[in-house]
């Protein structure tokens, strides 16, 4: 008989098969998504989509581009909240440049690349410590997602979109979800307003809640940015679908993109819009608007962000030898 001390602990068996189970479930989910996308793609009249793009009204494109510019400028200001919150001394222009680069790469390559890794790299090279970077990044993410909760709560709760026939959740279920999201957003404000002890430890990290004034500004900026993004799609759809409906579908698509971890939500955004709005507008018109949206809000800013990132990397490499020489001279002087 095997001694009890030699037997592997029961938890180790679970740890051994759990990662494989997660990978298998993830792979199955991606296969399902791919199958749905291929099935939908075969049914699309791509000639009609290209014709709609070729005949797009210039006024709609210019209006969407203006809203995209406002949205990108606004989101580039999100890290200024963290600058005020932490008290670091980087110039506002520098902070906005870092935020713009990381946000655009986040849109196109996913949050782990743009929202986290790139932000850490750029800020670290500018001299910020890991703790400060984490607090700046956390405050920006809270601004984005708390704004999302507040806006989704109001729209789902008080202006639930007309769902296609046969959907199980129904407008009533969507309204209940909206009220839950609204309560969560208001709870965040209450915590920022009412807690005397703002600092606490969560999963080994110190979390310091902002003041009520800063939290309110967070939500205001987050809500405004989501409305601007919805406005881009609304203009590109040439106002054929009600604005609250467009925003609500965009909010659903955003969460679907986060859950699937597909870079840029590629295919997910289109699938959600087609599923929820194809009973109101022809599929080729929806796809034409969404392709234009990707070109204006994703691809065009990516070109500028890539150039700015290459410039930042080049400057960092040029300053590194001088920094090392200065450090060596300091070491000799101290010896």
Task: Count the E strands.
Answer: 2
The average pLDDT is 79
What gap, in angstroms, lies between the N and C termini?
Answer: 66 Å
Count up the domains: 1
Please give the share of residues in helix.
over 70%
Would you mind describing this structure in some detail?
- With 335 residues, the protein is mostly helical.
- The protein has one domain.
- Helix content is 78%, strand content 2%.
- It has helices at residues 10-42, 46-54, 58-76, 78-86, 92-109, 111-125, 130-158, 170-194, 212-236, 243-260, 268-277, 283-334, and strands spanning 199-202, 205-208.
- It has a two-stranded antiparallel ribbon.
- A hairpin with a 2-residue loop joins strand 1 (199-202) and strand 2 (205-208).
- The longest helix has 52 residues, at 283-334.
- The chain starts with 9 loop residues before the first helix and ends with a helix.
- Residues 322-335 have low confidence and may be disordered.
Helices, strands, pairings?
Layout: H1 10-42, H2 46-54, H3 58-76, H4 78-86, H5 92-109, H6 111-125, H7 130-158, H8 170-194, E1 199-202, E2 205-208, H9 212-236, H10 243-260, H11 268-277, H12 283-334
Antiparallel strand pairs: 1-2
Task: Give a nutshell description of this structure.
The protein has 335 residues and is mainly alpha-helical. It has 12 helices and 2 strands, in the order ααααααααββαααα.
Features of this protein?
78% helix; disordered C terminus; mainly alpha; two-stranded antiparallel ribbon; 2 strands; 335 residues
